Each structure stands twice: as C-alpha cells, then as structure tokens.
C-alpha cells in the first residue's frame, strides 16, 4: 500500500481548527482510494514562542526534512509581533526547503458568488505564480540614527537564479496547463533597480517560449484589472511581495479569501513542499469552531496532486464542490450560513464517501 | 482680480489630450467666478528625452518653482524605459517640491456603476493618503556579479521624519474631514525592518489623536477587503508603494481608473503642489481623441480647492456630476459611449456655465 508521511503544523488561531477538519476529509479520500496518509503533528506556534522564546526547536527544520510534505494551518497571533512569528516558522520553511514557487489558483467555486457584478464561474479562473524565497521579503537592512534622525533601510534582493527559475516555472506551467499566456507584475517605473531587472529577465525567459503569449503590467494597474477584467488572465507571475498581494486580491474577487489554497513547491522535489490556505490565523474568530475549512481542504487536494495522487485529489475537489451546492449543507458564517468547521468538513467527507 | 500661475505639463500620450480638455473647463469656472488661471505650458515628455537625452532641461525644476501649482497629464511612453522617464520628470518634481502627500479620493461618481455587485454611491467613499517622497521608490541599490551570478539589490529608505509627517497628515485629515478613522497598510509579517517601523510610528502618532479610530491590515488582505467591504474604510494611509497599489485598486472598484484624480501636496506650501490623474499615458488609445478627461478635470477641481477656490472647485465637480447623468451626454468609449475627449469636456463646460 502507498504510504505518505505528512508533517502537520496547525500553528495558530483557526489553523488549529481547520487542519484537523481537513485531515478528516483527506484521510477518508486515502482510505477510499487505497493509500495511507501518516500525519505527524508538530505543535509549533506563537504559544511555543511565548513558552520557549522560539517558534520551533533549533532542529525544527531537520525534523520536517524527511516528510513527503508539510501541511500547515496558519502562523501568527496577537502577543507575538508578526515579523517574529513568521520569520521564526513559515518563512524559514519556505526558504530552507527551496519552496521557491507559491502556486495559487484564483477560481470561483460553485455556490459562492463573486462580489463582482456580472462575473460567473469561468470568468474567474487563473493562477498566480508567486516567487516564494527571496525578493522584497528580506531580513537585510536595519535602523540607524535615533529619535528624529532615525532612518530605516530595507533591502530587497533579487538573484538572477531566483528570478529565472520562477519565471521559467510560470512559462512551463502555462505550457503544461494549456493556458498559454503569462502576465508579469512589474513596477519598473518606480522601483529603479529590481523591477527593470525583473522585466529584462521576463523578456529573456519569455523568448524561450515562443508558443506562450507574454504581457506585463505595473502592479497598481494590474490590481485594478483583477477587478475590472479578471477573465483576461491565465497565469500571473509576480515577485514575493507582488505575488502575495495579488494572490489575496484574487481570492477577494472569488467571494472570500477563506476558500483559497496555496502550494509552496520545491519543484525539484529535493525537499518537502508545503500546503497551506491563503487565509491567516483569524484571531477574531479563533476558538469558536466556525472557521471555514475550505481553504485547508483545497490545500490538501493540492498536496495529494503533488504526491502524485491525482485521482484522489480530484475526488476531494468533486466532493467539496458537490457539498457546496447541496441544498441542506450547513455553511460556515463567512458564507452566510450557521454551520461549524467540523460540521462542514463532515459533510464534505460524507459526500466524498458517497461519490 | 485673483490670479494664479499654473505650470501645465501635458507630458505623454493621452496627457496631451486630457490636459487641454480640462483646462477648458477650469478656465470657464475661473471666468464665471471672477479669477484668472494663467497656464504656462511646458512641453516636456518622452519626446524631449528622445531628442535631448533628458526628460526636462537641467533647470526644469527651477522653472516650475515659482508657480502656484503644477497641472500634469501623464508621463511615460513606449520607446523610453519607464524608470528613465519617471525618474526624469514626475518623481523629481514630487521630491524636490516636498510633495510628500499623495491624496486620492475613492468615490463612485453618479452614472458610473461599480463593478462590485450590490455597491452603490455612498458605499464607496474613502480617501487614500499615500506617502509620496521616499520609501520603496528609491534609486539606491544596483547590480553585482554577471551572468548566472548576477544579484540585484533594491533599497527602500524610510525616515522617521518622512514617516511621521505622512501619518500625521492622515490623522489630521481624518479629523478635519470628520471621518475619524484611519486604516494603515502594513506588511510587517514579511518586510522585516521597514514595516515594523511603520507600525511603531503609526501607533505612536495615532496615540496623539485619541479622537480618531485607528486600525491596520497587512496590504494583501487589505487589497482583498477593498473588494469585499469597501464601505468600512474612511482614510487609508500607506507607504509610497502600498499607497500606489491601493489607490489604483480603489478606482478599479469605482468602475474605471480613468476618472480618478490625485493631488501631490506640499502641505506647508513652501513649494508648488502638483495635480494629475491616476491613469497613465495610455499608449493604446493615444492620438485618437477618445480618452476620458474626467480624471484630469477632477484633478483640476482638487487644484482649485488647494488654491483656496473652494466654491469654484465645488462648481466644477457639480458640473461634472450633472453632465454625467444628463441623458444626452456623449461619454467616452471606456464608459460605454462614443464621445470624444473634447466633446465630453465641452459638455461639462456648458453645464458649468449654465449652473
Ligand atoms: C508612473 C508611476 C511612477 C506613478 C507612481 O507609481 O507613483 C503612478 O503609478 C502614480 O500612481 O502616480
Ligand atoms: C503570513 C505572511 C508572511 C504570508 C506571506 O506574506 O507570505 C501570507 O500572507 C501568505 O500569503 O502566505
């Protein structure tokens, strides 16, 4: 029997609720399809930080290294500054395991209306390919001077290797998925060094893919176009920061960011990839059992896909989409219902077992 | 008679069409209200660059310095790299004249539908206050290494003085406008030095305004919230880059970025302020006489307001809003009509003269 060892890190806030809910669905899919998912749980979170001064143990990354994948909930909670919690857990995993691709679908699910007038399923269906390991997210820089004279420097680092590999991934993905059109997010009119370089590499790599159409927009107007004409996008590639913004805005136009998944991929498979929803730990609703588990379940489907379990991945998505349009389904409050995290996941699980 | 000397820089592309159109409206308002706008034209553009190697003459800034305001169209055109054209004209004006506030209304105009389902006038009505002189827009940095080993460094510089003054402007503006709620755009979970500093200053300055509510969101989720719940915003303050993105996205949710204005303000009035639409030079439609002049006209109204001509400013806006709902008005193609730039401006002018 095929076995996969998965490191699960529920993390903070609603991560602790949606991860078990999603695992219930994934485990059912595995049982039905004849393979085994072995989850090993790592209870690393802002609580860990408050107790030990560290988000994870010193050998944390080594403990994850031998798993087939990492299944993460959410990181960050009031009481621990965000740059401490994220640079102590999520970001080191992305970097150490060279998960340089952050892949995020922007797609309307059935039964969830877009906030955009006149846009239905099919109108909103594209992918954001985000650079996930360098760029604007950087710990290089610091403060100098005091009081009125204080100056803060923040450096962004773009390497040719890091830039080329994400652009190449985007073009390969566009080719592979049959959506032969890549749009680049730039801001070369304002950011004097980084983005002209990004544009240069986009042109150079694009030239290697004559069968894939390429265009680019400054990120400001691109954000506006996500709202005005989402149907024109297929694959959108952006730097770490631009990809981050665009891949939250994307879910925004699909009705709720609670449903959006993401895959942090090490395409070469030298290291485990990591799967997590786009949403955060949502302190405002944490502990109530009402968080929407869809983003976590969908992330789980992307994980199965990455593990090579293509059929089971499709089964999970079919169960999710079927459950979403069932008349009696108890949706979570963010989708206008009064259901619970566990109840909704249970319904997806039952639907799946019946398919 | 009150006289104002205005430096007009139509710039590139549709800037050359919308600036004269807007001037026709503003001049009519001045005539009707008994003051004089003296426009002096500066023909600086990418054409200038292609001829002379510079976007403006060496003493360009000095030639602008003694005007009461600068009225700008758009800068940038294919054939000149964007970072060359913008750092050669627009950005030096903003910096040299300490126009550290970029103020942009996000407001639905009558007769223009939001692309957001269920959002009507009143639901979308807030202001973006953008830092306009430092931060992520920086020429500091460069490239090192060659070929596969190339590395590009881009520095962002945040000064305490620059950060405090924009935050203070935002809180003052919120107080003055009676919309006592400021939302800060941050990304302190990813950007390790700059944004924790920004948050710290936001908290410190906010404490000086106990009568103004303050909250903050990471820019990714904030972008999604612009789409999901625009009605909850009043004054949104952001860094140069975040403010740029949010103030294009804002107009995106109001139906078209063609109508959005901006004011580049030197609040101390030591230097001229500059007024320009949010849209760019739109090479794709330049030269056809069909560009929408609303953003430029609205920018002109903000200029009159800044000059202290409050009534005339309101008159221009009333004329614009009245014209927009007149049944026989010939709207420009971006608004679904078949009118021309000059024709639409003429209609606004006639409406104004009849008010
Ligand atoms: C043209 C560009 C440099 C400019 C900016 O980013 O500031 C524009 O997008 C704006 O918003 O005024
Ligand atoms: C939590 C934060 C550091 C993270 C990011 O910006 O990468 C999140 O927003 C995401 O998109 O995964």
From TrEMBL, chains A, B:
What pathway does the annotation place this protein in? Carbohydrate acid metabolism; tartrate degradation; 2-hydroxy-3-oxosuccinate from meso-tartrate: step 1/1; Carbohydrate acid metabolism; tartrate degradation; D-glycerate from L-tartrate: step 1/1; Carbohydrate acid metabolism; tartrate degradation; 2-hydroxy-3-oxosuccinate from L-tartrate: step 1/1
Q: Which InterPro entries is this protein grouped with?
A: ICDH/IPMDH, IsoCit/isopropylmalate_DH_CS, IsoPropMal-DH-like_dom, TTC_DH
EC number(s) stated in the UniProt entry for this protein? 1.1.1.83, 1.1.1.93, 4.1.1.73
Tell me the GO molecular function terms: D-malate dehydrogenase (decarboxylating) (NAD+) activity; magnesium ion binding; NAD binding; tartrate decarboxylase activity; tartrate dehydrogenase activity
Q: Which residues form the signal peptide?
A: none
User: Cofactor(s) for this protein?
Assistant: K(+); Mg(2+); Mn(2+)
Catalytic activity, reaction form? tartrate + NAD(+) = 2-hydroxy-3-oxosuccinate + NADH + H(+); (2R,3R)-tartrate + H(+) = (R)-glycerate + CO2; (R)-malate + NAD(+) = pyruvate + CO2 + NADH; (2R,3R)-tartrate + NAD(+) = 2-hydroxy-3-oxosuccinate + NADH + H(+)
Alphabetical UniProt keywords: Manganese, Metal-binding, NAD, Oxidoreductase
NCBIfam families xref list: PRK08194.1, TTC
Please give the function described in this protein's UniProt entry: Has multiple catalytic activities. Apart from catalyzing the oxidation of (+)-tartrate to oxaloglycolate, also converts meso-tartrate to D-glycerate and catalyzes the oxidative decarboxylation of D-malate to pyruvate.
What's the name of the protein?
D-malate dehydrogenase [decarboxylating]
Species whose genome carries this gene: Sphingobium chungbukense
């Amino acid at each position: 029997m095929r076995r996969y060892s998965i490191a699960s890190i529920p993390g903070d806030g609603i991560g602790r609720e949606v991860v078990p809910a999603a695992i219930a669905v994934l485990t059912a899919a595995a049982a039905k399809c004849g393979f085994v998912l072995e989850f090993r749980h790592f209870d690393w979170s802002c609580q860990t930080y408050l107790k030990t001064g560290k988000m994870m143990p010193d050998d944390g990354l080594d403990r994850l290294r031998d798993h087939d994948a990492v299944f993460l909930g959410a990181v960050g909670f009031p009481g621990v500054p965000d740059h401490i919690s994220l640079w102590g857990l999520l970001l080191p995993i992305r970097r150490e395991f060279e998960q340089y691709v952050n892949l995020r679908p922007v797609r309307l699910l059935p039964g969830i209306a877009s906030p955009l007038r006149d846009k239905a399923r099919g109108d909103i269906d594209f992918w954001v390919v985000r650079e996930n390991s360098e760029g604007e997210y950087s710990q290089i820089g610091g403060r100098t001077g005091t009081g009125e004279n204080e100056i803060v420097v923040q450096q962004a680092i773009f390497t040719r290797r890091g830039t080329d590999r994400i652009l190449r991934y985007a073009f390969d993905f566009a080719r592979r998925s049959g959506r032969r059109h890549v749009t680049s997010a730039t801001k070369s009119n304002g950011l004097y060094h980084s983005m002209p370089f990004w544009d240069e590499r986009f042109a150079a790599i694009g030239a290697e893919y004559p069968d894939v159409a390429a265009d680019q927009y400054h990120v400001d107007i691109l954000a506006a176009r996500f709202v005005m004409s989402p149907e024109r996008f297929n694959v959108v590639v952006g730097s770490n920061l631009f990809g981050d913004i665009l891949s939250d805005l994307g879910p925004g136009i699909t009705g709720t960011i609670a449903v959006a998944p993401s895959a942090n991929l090490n395409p070469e498979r030298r290291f485990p990839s990591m799967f997590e929803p786009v949403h955060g730990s949502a302190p405002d609703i944490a502990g109530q059992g009402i968080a929407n588990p869809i983003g976590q379940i969908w992330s789980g489907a992307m994980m199965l896909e990455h593990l090579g379990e293509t059929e089971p991945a499709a089964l999970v998505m079919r169960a999710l989409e079927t459950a979403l349009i069932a008349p009696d389904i108890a949706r979570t409050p963010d989708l206008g219902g009064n259901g619970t995290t566990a109840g909704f996941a249970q319904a997806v699980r039952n639907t799946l077992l019946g398919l």
